[in-house]
Amino acid sequence: MAHHAVNPPATGASLTIPARLWQQLHAHLFPGDHAAHGAVLLAGWTDGPRGLRLLARELIPARDHIDYQPGTTGYHALSAAFVRDNILRARDEHLAYIPVHNHGGTTRVQFSPTDLASHERGYPTLTQISDTPICGLVLTPQAAAGDLWHPDGTRTDLAEVVIPANNLLRLRPQPTAPSASDTSHASYDRQVRIFGDLGQRTFQAMRVAVIGLGGVGNLITEYLARLGIGHLILVDDDLVDETNLPRLSGATASDVGHPKTALASRLARQAQPTITITSLTERVEQTHVQAELRQCDWLFLAADGAAARHFTNAAVQQYLIPATQAGVKIPVRDGTVGQIHAVTRLLLPGTGCLWCDGLINPTDLAIDMHAPADRAAAHYVPGTPAASVLPLNALAAAEAVSHFMHAVSCLHDDDLDHAGVLHRPRTRTRDLINSRTHPDCRWCAPQKQFALGDRPTTNVASS
Ligand SMILES: [Zn+2]
Ligand SMILES: [Zn+2]
After folding, report:
1. What would the mean pLDDT of 82-94 be, rounded to a whole number?
2. What separation in Å is there between the alpha carbon of 316 and the centre of ligand 2?
3. Dihedral over Cα of 145, 151, 59, 40: its sign
């Protein structure tokens, strides 16, 4: 069983490494020989809520004795040819250049004086060549330290490495110390017994979005607020109608005609009076709504629309933000009820892409991108309202938030189990569903939008 220290999000610059790249990097650096190995990561970047976020996009392993060899200072070093080839790629593709090597040890790591001397010798020139950030990185299997140099000559420490896998790993130079002054509020006593003080502090430090505040999203909001998530971003442009009342927790007749965001905000504040809420009674197509999603640590997608799916998926793949999709399907045809599905799907950078899984209809997306009047006209066949009932919504919502809290507090047995969960209540069965990935997907495949962050798209065409 994997065991990882839980570290609350740290303020400062961070590097996010997608699970698939981390698996490859880990295998390359730690093959069991206790020797030194090297590699380069190329990364996009964006501004996050706690500082610059570097977004690892590609791993280039350095071949032992060819690209990574004994240096003149007595330590191993990347060969001049390997550095040249990759710094020129960083320049041409406008990506951050991240040379990586490993040290011995497990939960603590720091650069050696030789490492730091080589950074001071080499990095000012490298940043002039690439005109992008350069970040020296040293790793053990459970710790990371980074030395970040900017093209303007400034230099900072990397605060953490984030790995959005089935456990949401945060690697630091040393484990976060539990501090007596930071003990959680007494009301969380029973939760702290599962998640620890650091797990509870991690919930408090997180920014989490819920996209879609219908039957499933309303419950997810309440569960997250009661769990102690510190900042919720609530997105839905819809108003409560009378037929929603049986399925919306906390709703009364006086909510009819008012935004679903108002109800969800009230519900969250009742659960946790000090919570921070960003309420967005708008559609996800609005660029500032997308900008809010990119500032999150996790997204919950509980809306059916193609635009909501597309923009959530884009935040996952281009900005490396993990997400969970949750929904219920109750097919009823001519009064006959078919197989009922309550689904939660894990959307992780590089895996679990909604385009690859065929879950975004391009025609629906095109219609969604039109103005409201055009949208209404395009749906010329009035849809029959779908069947819906609270306990089925609760099945999907509870599965989604349960997975999230295990991931954040690193309680999942297997870091690399990325399956979604499908409940079929009529047959009382539960199956795991694995996602597909297409090698040429514009969103999740290497070399396309993946992990580009804010890089200008003019460069995408030339790469
Ligand atoms: Zn070193
Ligand atoms: Zn894809």
Report:
1. 97
2. 10
3. negative
